[in-house]
Amino acid sequence: MNPDIPVQLLGGITAREFLRDYWQKKPLLIRQAIPDFESPIDPDELAGLALEEEVESRLIIENGVRPWEMRRGPFAEDEFSKLPETEWTLLVQAVDQFVPEVAELLENFRFLPSWRIDDVMISYAAPGGSVGPHFDNYDVFLLQGHGKRHWKIGQMCDTDSPLLEHADLRILADFQGSDEWTLEPGDMLYLPPRLAHWGVAVDDCLTYSVGFRAPSAAEVLTHFTDFLSQFMSDEERYTDADAQPVSDPHQIQRDALDRLKALLAEHMGDERLLLTWFGQFMTEPRYPELVTGPELDDAELLDSLEQGAILIRNPSARLAWSEVDDDLLLFASGQSRLLPGRLRELLKLVCAADALHMDNLGQWLADEDGRDLLCELVKQGSLGFADE
Ligand SMILES: [Mn+2]
């Protein structure tokens, strides 16, 4: 998309302006980001999802058996009827993986890399419902779906910010409010990481949280070095064939440190492996058990497509691609595959298209590598047949 065209979702500023002035920096309130927005899911349907085994959900009851009581789903149907009239919240994670119309909302965020998006969480709150003042370590767009929610924003926080004593929730002990707004359906609030916020339902309300993912520095280091170590032999060790006689045998000298730094730099500087690890890591599905596929060979796939079958992306799959020299890397749900550069347009199609069929695949089905790729993606579960 053109980064210099005003975006309705961003209140008429361009993607370039948003990224420059707000993203990861400061909050932005956008009235009618999605004009006349009608939530594709209602509170009953959300509660229905929270009954399902594979769906992550939580209930937070402000005056429960203890203050801010938290219960984890899946829930039994009668649990909802026993809740108080007011001051509780139901949070359902990754609704985009279960409701296609919710996944479609993500099309509005194509000015950001799709691999940065985590999920769409939807919360229902009874009047007065809230999860308390808190901060998150990731960016979030809070889109009001139904009813009204009053948002207050506060100070920037960090790991030293005092929290209430609570086993499960990170509620701020101290909230220094600065701005506040009441959001109505279609209104949206962008919040950068670590900004304190506190949303309280004015009436029955649904709020969509489009959350982002950014690995912590500790995760990058531990996961990347774990990945690297798979490719290292036990014979590769600290070496000091260049050693000089020591003056004090108990002293660790500067030259030892230099050799270690060289060893680290040699491996950490391997861009190809860094890219491979990162692509695999960022496309790991939230629910890997939902990404599985059938046994299938090229001929069967071709046959099905010729008979009108349609392939769609598994809503639980994550896809991304990158370049390495003249080749391409496709990342699909935690795995990677090196492909010849001529498949670039097919890769882009696989990542972006809502559906794959004879019409848009066309010539690619005549390409053995192309067919092979589609077949592998179906077997792996990242792509699936539409009517299954
Ligand atoms: Mn939050």
List of distinct ligands in this structure: manganese (II) ion
CATH homologous superfamily title of the largest domain: Cupin
Beta-strand percentage? Answer: 15-25%
Overall pLDDT, averaged?
95
Instruction: Just give the CATH class of the largest domain.
Output: Mainly Beta
Question: How would you sum up the global shape?
Answer: globular
Folded structure, characterized:
- With 388 residues, this protein is an alpha+beta fold.
- It has 3 domains: 8-212, Jelly Rolls, CATH 2.60.120; 216-231 and 257-269, no CATH class; 288-385, 50S ribosomal protein L16 arginine hydroxylase, Chain A, Domain 2 (Malonyl-Coenzyme A Acyl Carrier Protein, domain 2, 3-Layer(aba) Sandwich).
- The chain has 11 helices and 17 strands.
- The protein has helices spanning 15-21, 43-49, 77-81, 100-104, 217-229, 254-268, 271-282, 298-306, 344-352, 358-361, 368-380; strands spanning 28-30, 57-63, 67-72, 88-92, 117-125, 140-146, 149-156, 179-183, 188-191, 195-201, 205-212, 311-313, 319-324, 327-332, 335-340, 355-356, 383-385.
- The strands form 4 sheets. The protein has an 8-stranded antiparallel beta sheet with strand order 1-9-6-11-5-4-2-3, covered by helices on one side. Strands 8-7-10 form a 3-stranded antiparallel beta sheet, with no helix packed on it.
- It is globular and about 75 Å long.
